[in-house]
Amino acid sequence: MGKKELPPVPEALPVPAVDAHTHLDACGATDADSVRAIVDRAEAAGVGRVVTVADDIDSARWAVRAADWDERVFAAVALHPTRTKDFDDADRAVLAELVEHPRVVAVGETGLDYYWDFSPPEPQQEAFRWHIDLAKRSGKPLMIHDRDAHQDVLRILAEEGAPETVVFHCFSGDEEFARACVAEGYVLSFAGTATFRNAAGVRAAAAVVPVEQMLVETDAPFLTPHPHRGRPNEPYCVNYTLRNLAELRGVSLEELTVATSATAERVFRLDQVSPEAA
Fold first, then answer.
1. 193-202: b or e for each residue (b if 16 or more CB lie within 10 Å)?
2. Among candidate residues 143, 217, 155, 222, the one with its CA nearest the CA of residue 186
3. Ramachandran angles phi, psi of 168, nearest 5°
4. Number of neighbouring beta carbons within 10 Å of residue 256
5. How many alpha carbons fall within 13 Å on the CB side of residue 168?
6. Can you give the pLDDT of all 278 residues of the chain as single tens digits?
7. How many C-beta atoms surround the C-beta of residue 6 within 10 A?
8. Residue 273: alpha-carbon gap to chain centroid
9. CA 20 to 30 Å from 237, out of 3, 8, 24, 101?
């Protein structure tokens, strides 16, 4: 098989899992039928619910529609830090309205990205502060994108006062940074990167995080887990990540899946979201 082909759908997990962060639109979904097809594949692998995450205003509108199309889909809305250079009041008004939708379960992804240079640090930080406030006003979790910006992320959270629930999506720090985040009560979400053989720091972090502060995600279509790194990703591939992390942590696959699903249910209050799918 070539690298452009999806990995095989693995044997179903023993209990249902949650993909805590994916991008269904970037995976190629455009309408209710294509959303259903992706989530059906996920469910066949034991991944029964997904959170589809926005990275710009159009994506935020689409994510909310997708969550209405399928009761297995939930949405998170925000402006990605790399897109904050021209963040204006009209954008803020749209996000403030969308976040009130009953199937939006988080404000995200927001934060800081010092790897890319699409947006300077100053507008990123200003937008991050605004999203922190939005999370607090809406009472919904804050979903953080943190790339090469660990200390500034922690500093701004401390300065603004963190929302009740903070999720570090695709956690990219080492064990020391993980322990600092855990001490603050933050939740760490691990993607396919935690399965990479050259990601020793992230794997060390994934080994020590308490399961009640641990989520799993795909960040699909990116970061496909080992052994299919480099191929397209979809929500069903969280199955591979769970298998790898269960082995890393020395626990059964069922135990880790139950625990991370319980964390997702608590963090995103999934049991409180009414199934208003069309």
1. bbbbeebeeb
2. 143
3. -90, 100
4. 23
5. 31
6. 445 899 999 999 999 999 999 999 999 999 999 999 999 999 999 999 999 999 999 999 999 999 999 999 999 999 999 999 999 999 999 999 999 999 999 999 999 999 998 999 999 999 999 999 999 999 999 999 999 999 999 999 999 999 999 999 999 999 999 999 999 999 999 999 999 999 999 999 999 999 999 999 999 999 999 999 999 999 999 999 999 999 999 999 999 999 999 999 999 999 999 876 44
7. 17
8. 18
9. 101
SS3 string, the chain, reads: CCCCCCCCCCCCCCCCEEEEEECCCCCCCCCHHHHHHHHHHHHHCCEEEEEEECCCHHHHHHHHHHHHHCCCEEEEECCCHHHHHHCCHHHHHHHHHHCCCCCEEEEEEEEEECCCCCCCHHHHHHHHHHHHHHHHHHCCCEEEEEECCHHHHHHHHHHHCCCCCEEECCCCCCHHHHHHHHHCCCEEEECHHHHCCCCHHHHHHHHHCCHHHEEECCCCCCCCCCCCCCCCCCHHHHHHHHHHHHHHHCCCHHHHHHHHHHHHHHHHCHHHCCCCCC
Tokens 């926005």, located at residue: 54
Q: How many residues does the chain have?
A: 278
| Cβ count near 151 (within 10 Å) | 10
